[in-house]
Amino acid sequence: MALSAFCLSVAAQDPFLNNTIINTSDLFGTSRFVGMGGAMGALGADLSAISSNPAGLGMISKNEASFTAGASWLANNSAKGMATGTFAQFNQIGAVASFKGSGKLRNINLSFNYQKKADFNNSFFGETYTAASWADQLYGLAGEAYDNRGILYGRPDTYYNTLYNLAETSGLFDDVVIKNPDDPNSTLSVSRGSLSAYEFNLSMNLENRYFLGMTVGVDNLDFRRGTDYWEQCTDELGQIQDFGYINEQIITGNGFNLKFGAIVRPFESSPFRLGFTVETPTWYTLKYVDDQSLTTKYYWDDKAGQAFYDPTPGQYYDHYVYDLSDSYINFLEYRITTPWKVRAQMGSTVSTNFAWGLEYEYANYPGASTRYPSSYGGTTVDEDFKAITEVMLKPQHTLRAGIEFKPVSALSVRAGYNYITSTTTPDSYWDPYFSDNALAYPTALDYMNLSDTHIATFGLGYRYKWLYADIAYKYRHQTGQYYAFDSFYSNVDMSPIPVDLTRHSITATLGIRF
Fold first, then answer.
1. Which of 27, 30, 368, 470 is most buried, judging by how many CB atoms fall within 10 Å of its CB?
2. What single string gives the DSSP state of each residue in 237-274?
């Protein structure tokens, strides 16, 4: 059984979510950049090189401006799940102002570029058949925090936990449910948003052999997700009841980073060149809000201070925690510091009709850190959270390769390939029982372990005097092992659902040089 979908593991401050929103294991930019697989760090002379190697813009000797738009789509289907949809994309817009120098300084350039870094737009539905129950899991979570309804023990930080409060008001403190394995666990999820960068660059050309550049990047994050989960259980009275959980989450914020790049032609008579880039961490300041509800056959009695079962057929009750805008339980401010990144690049041209590029990137994602505002002022590093991040995540290695061939001077044919290793360890899992102040905010129990990513691209380009137009097609393939929850309290081995994350996209760029 397979589920074709794109799912984000979303519990506020779990390593899976943090990794999703900061890990840009995709390829965006101008159509020429995408068509060559992004392997232009040493070749340069493209606006999207502003991110991969800031020195590459020093190779542009004229003023230039470009605009890129396109669409992406999902068309994956299986017996128990599907993910479909077409999403318009505004991928890039930028400009370079080139100023001639004197002596060894051939030119100095000022550049700006807006570029998408990650796309969160997806919709999916999937089913799985198992005896494991999400409701039973929530019952177990409640038992972790309380004894005999309201007597707190063991984990004082969980008192204000959203899911624990939902468990109390929905009657799951008292009820033990039995999941029928012949009835499906169903998930409907819709996510929207993107991670984008606004980048400002200074670059220079020295003797047409040495190129230097620096980029200042400002990231903007907008992530939104709504998830509906349903299952059918038999309660302790032998009554069959539906159990539903609805969760809506929003993460927004901004980040800041610096990139430093250099390109050199080691042999004066050869077009062969080497590039190197160092990218600082991105320092994100983020805000998280959520809203969630449980649907059960229990209703809450304020006078009695407890929940009661309603045997009326078809009668269900929705349970909420607190108003989104008024409770800090549903609002969290935090900061994420991503790892440093380093890139080594090489490339060359052959005559005037062929170019090739190679690039390797390393990022140590276990080194990412999370900070929270301190009651004493400033921020503090969440050391416990950092410890589980180091266990669940691993360094990422990226290899990019690309070629460009010109059968005639005005026409270019391009192809590229990316191989990106997964950042999650194969046996990673989301442990909502982890005792940590930050993790008193979970609002979902699902998680997914991702495979390596493969990206194949193809592109065409046409030049006519000062005008150029490019198109590119991108095929991105990745799979995942999706868990709706950890089945510890259900005492049932829960096999993961294979997830197909394949995405197709096409982009077009229009630009001018003058």
1. 30
2. TS-EEEEEEEEEEEEEEEEEEEEEEEEE-SSTT---EE
- Given a cut of 50, is residue 3 above it in pLDDT? no
As given in the structure block, the two tokens for residue 271 are 């077009």
Task: Please tell me the distance from the alpha carbon of residue 193 to that of residue 17, in angstroms, as a whole number.
Answer: 14
Across 96-105, 451-460, 483-492, least confident range: 483-492
Cα angle vertex 82, ends 80, 86, to 5°? 175
Distance between CA atoms of residues 474 and 454, nearest Å: 10
pLDDT higher than 70, residue 366: yes
Looking at the predicted structure, is the pLDDT value of residue 144 above 80?
no
The yes-or-no verdict on residue 382 having pLDDT over 70 is yes
**What range does the domain containing 145 cover?**
3-513
Reduced to 3 states, what is the DSSP secondary structure of residue 377?
coil
Name which residue leads in pLDDT, 292 or 59: 59
The domain that holds 8 is classified in CATH as 2.40.160.60
Using only the alpha carbons of the chain, give its radius of gyration.
Answer: 26
Q: CA torsion angle for 157, 163, 164, 167 (degrees, to 10)?
A: 180
User: How many CA atoms are closer than 13 Å to the CA of 401, on its beta-carbon side?
Assistant: 5
Q: Which spans in 362-456 are helix H?
A: 383-392
